[in-house]
Amino acid sequence: MAALVGTLLPGLPLAGLTAAAAEELNQLTPAQASAGWKLLFDGQTTAGWRGFKQPSFPTKGWVVEEGCLKHLPKGGGGDIVTVGQYKEFEFEADWRIGPTANSGIKYFILEERGSAIGHEYQIIDALGAEDAKLDAKQHTASFYDVLAPAVPPPQRPLDEFNHTRIVVRGNHVEHWLNGVKVLAYELGSDEVRAAVAKSKFRNVSGFGTLVLGHILLQDHGGEVWFRNLRIRPL
């Protein structure tokens, strides 16, 4: 299982951006706009986001910094969700995580479940976080606690950004990391039902099926940066 932690690839550091590069963050190209993409973060405000089961954005824990939506280490504040809800979609984001940190991007979030339970695209310090050493179903780009990556995730070093892509088209779901498809699964399939039955979500009604829900960025106590958050309903 440890082999699935993957290789570390070069990317774009947080600091040292040229002025031109900084201006291109959190923007849509004309082609993306024509294709139906929508920004989920404008790089300057928290518009479009609120706390999980809260009417407004958290007053602590999350900040907008250097064109990123950032969770501060041990900052509290709780999980944040999109104001909008999505069922079939293509989602993209760049992210960077701090040492030993653990976070995630969740989808199919239903607030009526009471807690922030949804399908989680895991994000974790592949080398420093203890949970990453326990089980491949906790590695970056896994379907957290349900399905491990099918190929080693090509995760970059901690001081560089990674690019995540999540596709939900009908019952077909894909998890991508830095241009590599690392996991694909079918909602409601025998494989998913069996995996959910072995997971901590075994008693969650409707888990593992296609539902309309929010996108969530997780507060797991660690430092994490998100930028270039966008979505295209399918």
Blueprint (SSEs and pairs):
Layout: H1 19-24, H2 30-34, E1 38-39, E2 49-51, E3 62-65, E4 68-71, E5 80-82, E6 89-97, E7 102-109, E8 119-124, E9 162-169, E10 172-177, E11 180-186, H3 190-197, E12 214-217, E13 224-233
How would you describe the overall organization of this protein?
The structure is a single chain. The chain has 234 residues and is mostly beta strands. The protein has one domain (2-233): Exo-inulinase, domain 1 (Jelly Rolls), CATH 2.60.120.560. 8% of the residues lie in helices and 32% in strands. It is built from three helices and 13 strands; from the N terminus they run H-H-E-E-E-E-E-E-E-E-E-E-E-H-E-E. Strands 1, 3, 4, 6, 9, 10, 11 and 13 form an eight-stranded antiparallel beta sheet that branches. A five-stranded antiparallel beta sheet has the order 2-5-12-7-8, with no helix packed on it. A hairpin with a 2-residue loop joins strand 3 (62-65) and strand 4 (68-71). It is globular, with a radius of gyration of 17 Å. The protein starts with 18 loop residues before the first helix and ends with a strand.
Q: How many DSSP helices?
A: 3
- CATH level-two architecture: Sandwich
Shape: globular
Q: Give the % helix.
A: under 10%
The major beta sheet can be summarized as:
8 strands, antiparallel
* CATH topology value: Jelly Rolls
Distance, first to last CA: 34 Å
Helix and strand run:
HHEEEEEEEEEEEHEE
Which CATH class is shown?
Mainly Beta
Q: What share of residues are in beta strands?
A: 25-35%
CATH superfamily: Exo-inulinase, domain 1
Name the poorly predicted regions.
Answer: 1-16
Global mean pLDDT: 90
Question: Any idea what the radius of gyration is?
Answer: 17 Å
Q: Structurally, how many domains make up the residues? A: 1
Query: What structural category characterises the helix and strand content?
Result: mainly beta
